[in-house]
TrEMBL record, chain A:
SUPFAM superfamilies: Second domain of Mu2 adaptin subunit (ap50) of ap2 adaptor, SNARE-like. It is found in: Cytoplasmic vesicle membrane; Golgi apparatus. The keyword Nucleus does not apply. It comes from Cyprinus carpio (Common carp). It is a peripheral membrane protein. GO terms for biological process: intracellular protein transport; vesicle-mediated transport. InterPro entries: Adaptor_comp_med_subunit, AP2_Mu_C_sf, AP_mu_sigma_su, Clathrin_mu, Clathrin_mu_CS, Longin-like_dom_sf, MHD. This is AP-3 complex subunit mu-2. GO terms for cellular component: clathrin adaptor complex; cytoplasmic vesicle membrane; Golgi apparatus. Pfam families: Adap_comp_sub, Clat_adaptor_s. Belongs to the adaptor complexes medium subunit family. Keywords: Cytoplasmic vesicle, Golgi apparatus, Membrane, Protein transport, Transport.
UniProtKB/TrEMBL annotation, chain B:
This is AP-3 complex subunit beta. Residues 741-863 form the AP-3 complex subunit beta C-terminal domain. It is a peripheral membrane protein. One of its GO terms (biological process) is vesicle-mediated transport.
């Protein structure tokens, strides 16, 4: 399946290669570089590139291209999904997935890649299993290892790999037993010029951080499970139970994991928490343009809208922007023409606004379209769909765990067309 | 000048020294590493290996360190060992001779008691691509394929592919191993072995038959990567084994081209013979459905393509939501999923129409994502939603991404041709775009307008005029060429403007692009033919310009046109037809999706994504016209479940298996010995399973009561012990010796105990039933059951659900005209019996029936078991009243034991009666038959001629029930000895009636 993997950084250098079958010369990446050159933006590189003898499938994350070389027919999503899983694992191990982090931990990276694929077919991708095979590097462990000469490599076969719960390692022990669940919802919306909603939908995830001793069996039930229209589960969730009773029943993996992601049925009206008043205009013949933007809370269920960040790609003709924010700070990059305004928290009494003028290239004609405004925000302690966890129970272990549930709403791809 | 030369020389010099010093540094460093590797300190070695791995990762050559590294292959330090493995696998191919040094280490490790070490040894051994070791690899794979650890077996499955790519000649042997591993029941192995199957022998579909159902059932528990591979394989398999489920609804589906080709006759046949889906086909669809909820996008896509290629069309809609959900994922995932949706949306608009808004383009999307979304929106457009889509398109046209804006214009063009209601609106919109400031937008509009006008030119002369006015401002060659072509083609609609345009073009001819020049020549020729009075001179001028053009295409064209249109003595007959050649009506171009023909590839594959066949692509076959034999998937033997972790238990199970096998074997030998004197034949019954069971019953019935006992018994014990010995000695290699001797001792003791028990506790030796009655009893009549009827039958087999349960077979049939859903037994039972319920039946089609088995613990009493039989809507109270004879299980014992046991059960435990026998009942056969039909008891061989003995035990408590019938012509004495006096007396009453009655 996957023959080789090359990691390419933003400047187009191959800084790591790994082969699972015979060695493939790195010159195969030339086809990738060609495609990279042709693409105007880094994201525009096609994910699948055919070459005379191989096929290159790449993913771009954290400004690193992960280029997999394959030789014959394979579902492309199989490779793409795997590459993303590799990135997730690196992130899990090193905290960040950057070129520097990978170079610093090249031995661990190699050991990981060796375990994750055998002859190009995924072998162990479950983070709990990998962590038993290869312990993540920590400062303490590095110190201990250098003194005692012990290693990062586990000596035992992870029992999880053989059991019916491959995602959980055995012999987990904690003094404080705790289970936290974060219900995070994202609003994807397109708002048109007049402020009416073209499309809006809510996607949510439940991320968990479970640190419980032994083999706990958890059940999580919702007050209003009907809201969930389409769901995808971590493999630990018992599907039958969900089908029959709409209860999430599972033996959790140890540590952080995504329990569930869901889509709220499109029949429900989506509350849009912020509104934007804008007036962006260019006059024919003049080298000046007006820019006015005001944000305000709309349907927030009484919660504050925080960490608001507005960004907009201004037309190419704009030379500079001279703006005045009523709160927060703004930046304008004259090269990429990207305007971003870090607003912070919206105060309903005093609405934040950004006003001023833009200077255009002299002699250039008026841009015939207005920029799109992307908005990011966060609302704590609110799941905008109204989803509520009813209760969390634990079976199979005697102790009393500490349980916590947190709600949050974020903007996903929230765009306002002007 | 001179200075420059000198400095260049210097530069070269420094470069050279730099290079050499670097090389030197490398070799020095390597020396350094070699030293470290040869030191005694583990930590130094490890450090060296880490640095070497760093070199490998950077793609630097570290092959000269091979000898130093390979020495450490047997290191105790696991991390060091692993890093050496990494190195070995990377360089073994280049240093084959040296690599062989390490082989013996792996061979030793293959025998290690630790499964992790065995597995990793096999992994590395099979990854060393050295052809000499192929036989060793083959041997190792064969051995590992029978390993007790599923993890090692999984590694073996991986090794198969590696060996195959190293030496394809081993194919036949490898297929044998694959065949063996396919039978494996571990979820760990399934994915890997199917992968090996796909790589080595994807055409050997016959290997799958027997494992098909198992794979379907295991699928949910297989790890996610395995799921993808298995689903793809099963898709291919299903397309060769089942008939198409699409026939029926093909008639309602206007998009399906098949309906078009189906002749009337075929349709009639279809109507008379409704399609019934093969249960195995249904099994696959049912078991893959939950995987749509997987977090792994590749799994979701695999299931979606399976449904697309295998499911009846009306069930397809369930995949829509999941596919749309994947659009939230990473950019690359979106790209692949959108491509597949694009292909699907051409054939089935309805699937994605409700989710149209999910395909709206965002300004942050990458260009290829935008284009794909546009493609899908265009595919989804119909009369109802076109206005919404066009409004959306208007926004896109204004996008900063001009390539995308151009694509949108193309899309508008496609909408306009496909939906005739909006052609005019679109055309007007496009004309407005002609005044756009961006050239690419204008150019694209012109091209699209040109295509649209071709479909209905007569009504749009004003648009052509408008375009002629804009002509001066348009600079994109393609657009200019398009306008010129339009002018020429429809010059009759714009008789005044066309010559003027030509005049302008004559002025700028030399500065135009080639493509425009060609169209100028074209326009000139057409005008010359239609309006030669005004344009004759202009044409001459242009043709002269063309004659001396730099481009030979244009010179050629000019020469050709001149010969064609200007009549002279040289020109032949062709010039007569010049008008008809040039002004021939041209067919309008068809604007269609780029994804139109992508459905020739299986969805979700690489070939589909690239729209060209990738190497190793396996074609999806067409449905067979007639389904191949479906019985090939039947699996006869149900092996006991193996518990991988608990070795000892596993061993014991295996021993038990051998024991039972021996027992059965000996029994069947004795049966075949005594078969001659039987002539009884049984009624044939309808269902096949029943038939086979009754056959075996009749065979057992034929068993005459000959002597066998003591010597045979000894023989059995001897063979048992010897065989156990053999079995153990085979499997001991994985086991610590002392453990084994312990086991030996245990087994020996068990055997001894067993041997003793043959004499002491004979009663516990159960045997199979002598006779199984065919009669079923009514449980629920179809009138009271609102269409659901149920019958039950005692199978007289030991119940698999519990030792103290009586096993029952329930036949449920649906005589109503609608399907019944969710048939099950309710949880609460009104009486105290312990009931093992059958698994709920999801759906029972009209006129269909299904047979299920259940177990009831009657507690050795004839009290009826009452319970609720439920369907989705109703509940029916039913009760099962067991006959007393069904509460027994047959046992065998010797005659001597029988009399001994009988002697213990005298007094109040004995009940007897004297009856008068009918003469026709006196024969031994008829007595035997009558007795065993009343009660499920075994026949004891008797040495006396007119005494018949039978033995059984009660199911729940296991108390002995001994029956003897002594014939004293014409009377007979029935004696029953049992602790359970109630059962005894009830049995006696039934025997009395059975034996006094005549008839069979």
């Amino acid at each position: 399946m996957i023959h080789s993997l090359f990691l390419v950084n933003a400047s187009g250098d191959i800084f790591l290669e790994k082969h699972w079958k015979s060695v493939v010369s790195r010159s195969v990446c030339d086809y990738f570089f060609e495609a990279l050159e042709r693409a105007t933006e880094p994201e525009n590189v096609p994910p699948v590139i055919p070459t005379p003898h191989h096929y290159l499938i790449n993913v771009l994350r954290h400004r690193i291209y992960f280029v997999a070389v394959i030789q014959s027919e394979v579902p492309p999503l199989f490779v793409i999904e795997f590459l993303h899983r590799v990135v997730d694992t690196f992130q899990d191990y090193f905290g960040v997935c950057t070129e520097a982090a990978i170079k610093d931990n090249v031995v661990v990276v190699y050991e990981l890649l060796e375990e994750m694929l055998d002859n190009g077919f995924p072998l162990a991708t479950e983070s709990n299993i990998l962590k038993e095979l290869i312990k993540p590097p920590t400062i303490l462990r590095t110190v201990v290892n250098t003194i005692t000469g012990s290693t990062n490599v586990g000596e035992q076969l992870p029992t999880g790999q053989l059991s019916v719960v491959p995602w959980r390692r055995t012999g987990v022990k904690y003094t404080n037993n705790e289970a936290y669940f974060d219900v995070i919802e994202e609003i994807d919306a397109i708002i048109d010029k007049s402020g009416s909603t073209i499309t809006a939908e809510i996607q949510g995830v439940i991320d968990a951080c479970v640190k419980l001793t032994g083999m706990p069996d958890l059940t999580l039930s919702f007050m209003n499970p009907r809201l969930l229209d389409d769901v995808s589960f971590h493999p630990c969730v018992r599907f039958k139970r969900w089908e029959a009773e709409r209860i999430l029943s599972f033996i959790p993996p140890d540590g952080n994991f995504r329990l569930l992601s869901y889509h709220v049925s499109s029949q429900n009206l989506v509350a849009i928490p912020v509104y934007v008043k804008h007036n962006i205009s260019f006059r024919e013949g003049s080298s000046q343009g007006r820019f006015e933007l005001t944000l305000g809370p709309k349907q927030t269920m009484g919660k504050a809208v925080e960490s608001v960040l507005v960004s907009s790609q201004l037309p190419r003709g704009v030379l500079n922007a001279n703006l005045n924010p009523s709160q927060g700070t703004y930046t304008f990059d004259p090269v990429t023409k990207l305007l971003s305004w870090d607003v912070g928290k919206i105060n309903p009494q005093k609405l934040p606004s950004l006003k001023g003028s833009m200077s255009l290239q002299a002699g250039a004609s008026k841009p015939d379209e207005n920029p799109t405004i992307n908005i990011q925000f966060k609302i704590q302690q609110l799941a905008i769909s109204g989803l509520k966890v009813n209760r969390l129970d634990m079976y199979g272990e005697k102790y009393k765990p500490f349980k916590g549930i947190k709600y949050m709403t974020k903007a996903g791809k929230f765009q306002v067309r002007t | 000048m001179r200075n420059a030369l000198v400095s260049a020389e210097n530069l070269q010099l420094t470069l050279k020294t730099d290079f050499s010093s670097e090389e030197q540094a490398l070799t020095i460093k390597n020396e350094d590493l070699k030293e470290m590797l040869e030191s005694n300190k583990e930590s130094l070695k490890l450090e060296a290996m880490k640095r070497i791995v760093g070199l490998i990762a950077k793609g630097k050559n570290a092959s000269e360190l091979f000898p130093a590294v390979v020495k450490n292959v047997a290191s105790k330090n696991i991390e060091l060992k692993k890093l050496v493995y990494v190195y070995l696998v990377r360089y073994a191919e280049e240093q084959q001779d040296l690599a062989l040094l390490s082989i013996s280490t792996f061979q030793r490790a293959l025998k290690d008691p630790n499964q992790l070490i065995r597995a990793s040894a096999l992994r590395v051994l099979s990854s060393i691509r050295v052809p000499i070791i192929v036989p060793i690899m083959m041997l190792a794979i064969k051995e590992a394929a029978t390993d007790l650890s599923p993890y090692v077996r999984k590694t073996a499955a991986h090794a198969i592919q590696k060996l195959y790519s190293l030496d394809p000649d081993q194919k036949e042997h490898l297929i044998e191993v694959i065949e063996k591993l396919l039978k494996d029941k571990s979820t760990l192995v399934a994915g890997s072995v199917v992968m090996a199957f796909e790589e080595v022998c994807p055409d050997r579909i016959d290997l799958i038959h027997k494992n098909y159902r198992k794979l379907c059932n295991l699928l949910v528990d297989v790890e996610e990567w395995g799921q993808v591979v298995i689903i793809h394989m099963l898709t291919r398999y299903a397309r060769t084994q089942f008939v198409s489920p699409w026939r029926e609804d093909a008639m309602f589906d206007e998009n399906n081209e098949k309906a078009f080709y189906d002749s009337e006759e075929e349709r009639k046949v279809e109507q008379t013979r409704p399609y019934i889906m093969d249960p195995d086909h249904r099994l696959l669809l049912r078991n893959t459905k939950p995987l749509l909820q997987s977090r792994n996008t590749a799994v979701v896509m695999a299931v979606s393509q399976l449904y697309w290629h295998l499911a009846p069309k009306h069930e397809l809609s369930i995949i829509t939501k999941s596919l749309v959900r994947l659009l939230r994922s990473h950019r690359e995932v979106q790209y692949v999923v959108l491509q597949n949706i694009a292909t699907m949306s051409i054939q089935r608009k309805g699937m994605f129409e409700p989710f149209m808004k999910s395909f709206y383009v965002r300004s942050t999307d990458a260009t290829h994502i935008k284009t794909l979304k546009l493609e899908i929106l265009t595919n989804l457009a119909n009369e109802a939603n076109i206005s919404t889509i066009l409004r959306e398109f208007q926004t896109y046209v204004k996008s900063q991404d001009k390539a995308f804006a151009a694509a949108t214009i193309q899309a508008i063009g496609r909408c306009a041709t496909n939906i005739s209601e909006v052609t005019d609106t679109c055309l007007n919109g496009l004309v407005l775009l002609l005044s756009n400031r961006d050239e690419t937008v204008v150019a694209e509009s012109v091209v699209v307008i040109k295509k649209l006008l071709q479909t209905q030119p007569s009504q749009h002369s004003d648009i052509i005029k408008h375009m002629a006015k804009l002509f001066d401002n348009i600079t994109v060659p393609m657009a200019r060429a398009s306008i010129l072509w339009l002018m020429g083609e429809y010059c009759e609609h714009v008789p005044k403007i066309a010559p003027d345009v030509l005049r302008k073009m004559a002025k700028t001819f030399t500065n135009e692009e080639d493509i425009v020049k060609l169209q100028i020549v074209n326009l000139a020729a057409k005008l010359y033919l239609t309006n030669s009075k005004q344009t004759k001179l202009l044409t001459q001028y242009i043709l002269n310009l063309g004659k001396y053009d730099q481009n030979y295409d244009i010179r050629d064209r000019t020469r050709f046109i001149r010969q064609l249109i200007v009549p002279n003595e040289k020109s032949g007959a062709l010039s007569k037809y010049a008008r008809r050649i040039l002004m021939a009506p041209k067919p309008a171009p068809v604007l269609q999706s780029a994804f139109k023909d992508r459905d020739r590839f299986q969805l979700g594959t690489l070939s589909h994504t690239l729209n060209s066949q990738a190497s190793g692509y396996l074609e999806l076959s067409d449905w067979p016209a007639v389904a191949p034999d479906q019985s090939v998937r039947n699996v006869e033997v149900v092996e006991p479940v193996r518990l991988p972790c608990i070795f000892i238990l596993f061993y014991f199970l295996k021993i038990m298996l051998v024991l039972t096998y021996i027992c059965v074997h000996v029994e069947s030998v004795s049966e075949s010995e005594s078969e001659e004197n039987s002539d009884d034949s049984n009624k044939s019954s309808s269902s096949q399973s029943e038939k086979s069971s009754s056959e075996s019953d009749s065979e057992k019935k034929k068993k005459t009561l000959k002597n066998k006992k003591l010597q045979q018994l000894l023989l059995i014990i001897m063979t048992k012990y010897i065989l156990i010995h053999i079995v153990l000695s085979i499997s001991t290699q994985f086991f610590v010796n002392c453990m084994c001797s312990l086991l030996h001792l245990c087994v020996f003791l068990a055997c001894q105990f067993d041997a003793v028990s043959w004499h002491v506790h004979v009663s516990l030796q159960a045997s199979s039933p002598v006779f199984v009655p065919e009669t079923s009893h009514e449980l629920l009549h179809r009138m009271t059951g609102k269409g659901l009827s149920a019958q039950y039958r005692f199978t007289r087999q030991p119940c698999i659900y519990g030792n103290s349960m009586v096993s029952l077979q329930l036949t449920l049939s649906n005589s109503s005209d609608q399907a019944l859903e969710n048939i099950h037994i309710s949880e609460k039972s009104s009486t105290g019996q312990n009931i093992h319920r059958f698994n709920a039946i999801e759906r029972l089609e009209p006129q269909a029936s299904v047979t299920v088995s259940m177990g009831v613990d009657f507690n050795d009493s004839t009290q009826a078991a009452n319970f609720q039989l439920c369907t989705k809507e109703d509940e029916f109270s039913v009760s099962i009243q067991p006959a007393v004879g069904e509460l027994l299980l047959p046992i065998t014992m010797s005659e001597a034991d029988f009399t001994k046991e009988q002697g213990k059960l005298m007094g109040m435990n004995e009940s007897s009666a004297t009856i008068t026998m009918k003469p026709e009942n006196v024969s031994s056969q008829s007595v035997n038959r009558k007795v065993v039909s009343v009660a499920n008891i075994g026949v004891i061989p008797s040495s006396q001629e007119n005494i018949y003995r039978f033995a059984g035990k009660t199911v729940s408590s296991g108390s002995l029930v001994l029956v003897s019938v002594a014939l004293k012509d014409p009377d007979a004495v029935i004696t029953i000895n049992t602790e359970k006096t109630v059962i005894g007396s009830m049995l006696l009453r039934q025997f009395k009636t059975a034996l006094t009655n005549s008839g069979p």
